[in-house]
Records
---
Amino acid sequence: MRISSWQEELRGSLQDSEQLLEKLGLQTNKLQTIKASEAFPFKAPESYLKRISKYDPTDPLLRQILPLQEENNQHNDYVVDPVGDLESETVPGLLHKYHGRVLLVTTGACAIHCRYCFRRHFPYADSNPAKQSWQPAMEYIQNDHSISEIILSGGDPLMLADEKLKKLLAELTAISHLKRLRIHSRMPAVLPSRITESFLDLFHNLRLNPVMVLHVNHVNEIDEHVELSLQKLKTAGITLLNQTVLLKGVNDSSQALSDLNEKLFESGVLPYYLHMLDKVQGAAHFAVEEERARNIMNKLRETLPGYLVPRLIREQAGLAYKLPIL
Ligand code: SF4
């Protein structure tokens, strides 16, 4: 298989947070960092690291990826599967939570490891149909005519090579009751070189209506390379939405969210959801209290047009929809 430049870039990702701190001119002992667990190690590509400011321990991009001692604190209400993924798994790797939509866990791999990730403890080894075959998932979708939308998630589905995605899309397109293809990905923002011509070709004359839900948390994540990748996706006819996680020390102010949503819109993306943190073990230090979240949202409403204000929601295990907070 031919290796693309994005794959090479990915291979060169930094795997050691101490090296990063050294590069940034920061002292490890002051930041109380830890060596991340083997199950969820430190990982970030150079293209993302370039956007982190030197000498600033509070940089919002750094904070998202830096393993801190606080990850080891135990909190009773922080669990390994906060959104009930495993309960909704119908066949390996296929989650059926909501009416009309199913989510396929296409891979366990990501270009970056976000320390607050709600799937940081997900048993990808047991729930990754890509390793064996998509067949049981395809049969399940084929047999349920109420399903009109397939969501490709992970990990990050854009970690799959284009050839593999092409085969997957061909199988999905052949299921006549599917209407929409939704892709959840952080890669256009984290590794913009992933948006290659051969990737964009996958959407040429695609029968399914494509939507990509990006995951961007801070305006500094959107540099000129990211803007270009978003423009290309839009030109390829893909509807672009964004979901943000409300994170303490990253974006927990109306100004930060206003700047982010303005910039997203300039880049052709509409704000979709603002998620309250999912209570996953190891991420409690990112939590923002609900009252504070409401205040931030109220201020956001005062400054932005309605279409730039995302919906503040919480995902609750077992609920048939995402719970709107404000
Ligand atoms: S890219 Fe998404 S799935 Fe991967 S670690 Fe970050 S939040 Fe989790």
Note: Residues 110, 112-114, 117, 119, 154-156, 186, 215 surround iron/sulfur cluster (CB under 6 Å).
---
Amino acid sequence: MELTLDAAAPNPDEGRPVEVLDRSTKRPTDRELRLERNFALAVAVLPFLGVVAAAVWHAITWVDLGILVATYTMTGLGITVGYHRLFTHQSFTCPRWVEGVFAIAGSMAVQGPVIRWVADHRRHHQFSDKEGDPHSPNLVGGSMLGLWHSHMGWFFSEQKTRIRRFVPDLITNRMLSWIDQRYLWWVIASVAVPAALGGLLTWSVEGALTALLWGGLVRIFLIHHVTWSINSICHVFGARPFHSRDLSTDNLWLAIPSFGESWHNAHHAFPTSAVHGVGRWQLDLSAWVIGGLEAVGLAKNVRRPTAEQLEKRRV
Ligand SMILES: [Zn+2]
Ligand SMILES: [Zn+2]
């Protein structure tokens, strides 16, 4: 199998017959499908109920806010630096223990186990905005329906990504497989850690419960919708400064909450780049973190497009 992670390489699946797409996905058994859908429903609904409960029951305290910001940053970077730029696109290398930290932090964002997430995202790049893309907003009829599908609707699809086809490098990584198989542990930790912190910092049960709501469920809700907005909004609205094979866009207003992931057109133009905010003033916290790790010797082989490569792809 061959991954097309290099923007300059032709897409091997473009224009290929339908059997190629069949090899990318499979339909799970009815039981598996029911289980997956129930889990997806819980993941979509419970954080929302947490937001309602938090808003109605208790105003946010400074302790809750501190825990929310800390856990949002930690789990958000787990997704953007770990799941996305490191594991999916191999935009840098790092020691195994750093890989482990990012895989666990990403798992605590409750967006799925690392290997599944990476497989879905590589499939997204392989077929971007074409038949076979798991979450393109541009294939489903009607713009609102397309946005819904790319934002959350695709979780309920009957077609699941064939893991082996897209992540042969990760399924042989024993540490990542170990973390991946214990996904439920990290989901529980994702709400238990904020609750424990809140309880300890305020020395009260009420403090534990409000931290569980704000630092747990509300934070998961926020990080979910920011990540999902990259899949939906950043393939419909916004600027397209670079040539890419799809309809990906850049959106300035999402740059801060998404830690730089909303420079999504640049990302599709240069998928293996560790930097998505390639312009001088384009905020990209994830790239700064990778640069920081590089400065202290914890990240190596950091890939960045040259000025010449950028110019060549500019619209
Ligand atoms: Zn995309
Ligand atoms: Zn990507």
Note: The pocket of zinc ion (ligand 1) is lined by residues 124, 128, 235, 248, 264, 268 (CB under 6 Å).
---
Amino acid sequence: MQKPNETDSFRLLLEKKGLKFTRERRELIQEILRLKTHFDADGLHELLKSKGSQISRDTVYRTIPLLLECGVIQKSVGDGRREYFERTSVKGHHDHMVCIQCGKIIEFHSDLIEKIQTEVCSEYGFRLVFHDHRLFGHCKDCAGK
Ligand SMILES: [Zn+2]
Ligand SMILES: [Zn+2]
């Protein structure tokens, strides 16, 4: 199965919203497509600037929700002080369990949860765009302590 092109998904969404695929937005998505690990908005902005981009911090912050909406990125889990994101296509869509004792992060995917949340949303007449499940608790190692 061919993977949907991430740049195309982004461009389509911009088009739908009547927004332009500006040079800054192009630089932003091209940089994200090189990333294999999670990132935060400020780090991404620094990285772009170090490469000579004129993109403003504001543009980075305003573009992230668009990238979430078109599914190119999803929310990740970081140190709790900042919001982290990651490219959806690197590992496929997944959600997170966070150990509140040692900070360990477990990535999981459940077809059942994905399916049920779609059903719940439609019961509420809610059009789901993206989601972010974080389950907090004690990991296997910590639960025994
Ligand atoms: Zn999910
Ligand atoms: Zn733990």
Note: Residues 93, 95, 114, 131, 133 surround zinc ion (ligand 1) (CB under 6 Å).
---
Amino acid sequence: MTIHKSIPHQRNAWYAVAMAEEVTRTPLRRVILGEPLVLYRAEDGTAVALEDRCCHRLAPLSPGKLVGDCIECPYHGLRFDPDGTCTFIPGQLDIPARARVQAYPLVERYGLIWAWMGDAAAELARLPDWRWAESADWAVRGGYFHIKCHYALSVDNLMDLSHIAYVHSGTIGSASDAEKAVIDTLSEPGRVTVRRWVENQPPSPGFQKRFGPDPIDRWQLIEFQPPCYIRTFKGLGKGIYGTAGFDFTSAESDPPEGALSVSRGNTCITPETDGTCHYFTVHCHHGPVPDEEADQAWALAAEALAEDVLILEQTQENMELDPAKRMVFIHFDEGVEKARQAMRMAVKEEAS
Ligand code: FES
Ligand SMILES: [Fe+2]
């Protein structure tokens, strides 16, 4: 079965659709879950998301212009307000009731614009908890990447960090990340967590540059919540293993004394089409850290992400050549498989 048939999209959920700064008074087109959206800001700065497909002859609205808070279709000049209602048809006073486009509930949080894509009422409580992105105790950096792969492949990539030993051997990975890691996987309704710990091992090339060559301990907790939210709690330091009072599995635990780096990665991988996705990530470094250090850490993360994009797009290409080709399960894949089960379960619950 093809991947997009085996993992359908959940609709009643918040999806990150743009970085806040991308949405301006110039309309932006973005395809989300196979639906075309046009994003812009009303005159008071409120973000608006409408179906980017005019109800008249289905032309995109995004190449059109804004007239106050309305957007004007570039084809024959129909105008739509932020609720999606047609307010103007050139030379026609009677506006048909069906002359409207879909409007999507939006919320602006964590430096991102989120859209609710389902028919059920939007529930603010269902936004993921990325509280450190709004805390002065953390230095925040983030970005948007477009990846030509099914979003589940990108989730797989984060749920199995054994790949960092190979894909990221020149940046954030070293051989010990695959060979010496102690891994366990926890699954509960609506959440899958992979915990990894590597003790007293040589740092990767990127970390050697930042922290020197001495062996380090490294911990990574990766947590998946449907439909496509991933939080990673990561850190490294010398002789941290077993530090009293430090629980790397808890978002509430204070970073341990002597840690060289502690970070929280917050990622939403929004499906675009069945073979492409939007990757929004907000990296938070525990501070106070100088700007240059936060920039350096973010640059390293972005460099590593470019390495992921390459292998993910190559894998997608192979999958498309033979969609029926089966994969072989190995011990690294437990978190990957459990995350996929959680995705399917969420879609099933939505359908019922
Ligand atoms: S297609 Fe939009 S006005 Fe005709
Ligand atoms: Fe990676």
Note: The chain has two domains: 7-125, 131-351.
